[in-house]
Every structure is written in C-alpha cells, then in structure tokens.
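quick one before i forget lol
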Amino acid sequence: MSPEDALAALGFEAGATIVESLGGSDVSESWRVAFADYRQCVLRIDTAVAQRLRLDRARELDILRALEGRELAPRIVTSDAAGGLLLLEWIEGDAWSPAGFRRDGNIERLASLLRRVHAVEPPAGPAVLPAAIERYRRAVAGAADVRSRELLTDLERMGDEPLVLCHCDPTGSNVIDDGHRLTLIDWEYAGPAPAWFDLAVAAGYHDLDDELSDRLLAAYFGRADRDARASLSRWRSFYKDLEALWTQAAGGLAAKPRT
C-alpha cells in the first residue's frame, strides 16, 4: 500500500503531504506527514513480515493509550489495527546512534527512562516473552520446536521475576533525544515482562562493555554487584537466543530480536 492510499484509508484524502520516507524495519515502513494545520505526524504501514509474526497491533494501541500524557511515547492520532496502519504524533529530536550510549550521562538517562516505563501499570494481557516464543515457533511451522522449548526452559530458570510494562526493544534507533527529554518509539513488541529484559536488550544489542553495563545496572538498581552482573549476563544470553529464533521466524532476515 502506498502512503497516499494509507492516508486515504485513515480518512485523510486531502490536506496531508508526504514530507519524506523515514525508512523502516522488517515489519513496517514509515513516512513523515505534514498537515494543513501545521501538524506533523508519522505514518506507519505494516509489511508482510508483521503478519507472519502475528504482531498484536491492538495490544500496542492499548499500551500507547496507557502511556498518554506521560511523555514516554508518541500520541496516537488515529489507527487501523486490522489494516496495519498507524498515525502518530511527530516527536522532535534525533535517534541515538550506537555511540549515543557512550556519551556522558546517556546510560543514566536511559536507565531513568526505563524505570519510568516500568512504573506504568501495563494493560491486561499475557506475559509477552512466552507468547512471543510461541508465535515465532508457529511462524516457522514447527521447524524451531526444540529451540522454542529451550527458550521457555531458560525463561523458567530465570526465576519468578515480577512482570512490569517493558518496551522490549529499547535500542538506539528507538530512543529519540531532543537534547532534554528521551522518548521511546516503536512500541509494537511491548508488554508485561521482567525489567531485566529491557536492560538486556539495551546492553546486548549494542554490545555494551563491562563498564557501561555496570553503569546501567548502577543507575537502574543503585548497585552493580556480582548478583546483578550475573543476572544481566543470563538475560543477555536469553536475548541473543531469542534473536536467533526471531530471525528464523521472520524468514531468515538478519535483524535484531523482537518480542
């Protein structure tokens, strides 16, 4: 579907201009849109991979509504979950590059952002990690049964961690920084999960070294002791294994893991 057709499907047949393509991920493409009243928005259109992975767009909308007014996520303008269409407010700022994690104070800012997210009551729904593993298993029609069982076993071995609202993909490309405030975008994988998973994604995707990982732990928990390091290491390993399953489920695409 073209962005013009998507806007028409959302009820904007006139008064909207496509400013630029924002590129996208394996599961969606995005465009910046300007309206006659000077608003700017982001239009997102799902790809076939989103359907293959059975992404729960209705859950994403519930989470975005729960976050409204908290300055943690973009505001919904309108949506068509069944059609894979979403129009969000435009957030000013720049996404972090991998180097952004290494700039003075940014790890601490990210930890503070995640703590604020984790303090929000998640909408009712199942734990997101077991559900994601099952969706990915089904996407490859049984070809990953052993790997899926191993991931579920690993998850059980992590212990009975409290479930909080997790973004589940807090990588640099999803952190928008206006110089004062951080905002997270792309909430399509969010849901109830142990806080450790967000920390593992942030540390694991960008291969943070021991010093930066310790700073992340210290900023989030107030400590970076042996137990905390061991827990982060286990969750990073789980995250990497989930990456392999996600890649297989998405059709062999070399991309970051999703939940």
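fyi The chain has nine helices and ten strands.
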